[in-house]
Amino acid sequence: MSLYEVTMDSLTVGNESVSAAKTVIIDTGSSYIYIPEEDALNIYSYLPSPKTSAQGYLLPCNPANPPSLTFTFGGMAFDLEYKYLIGADVGSQDGYCWAKIGSLKGMDTWVIGDAFLHTVYTSFDVGSKEVTLYKLLK
Question: What domain of life (predicted)?
Answer without folding.
Answer: Eukaryota
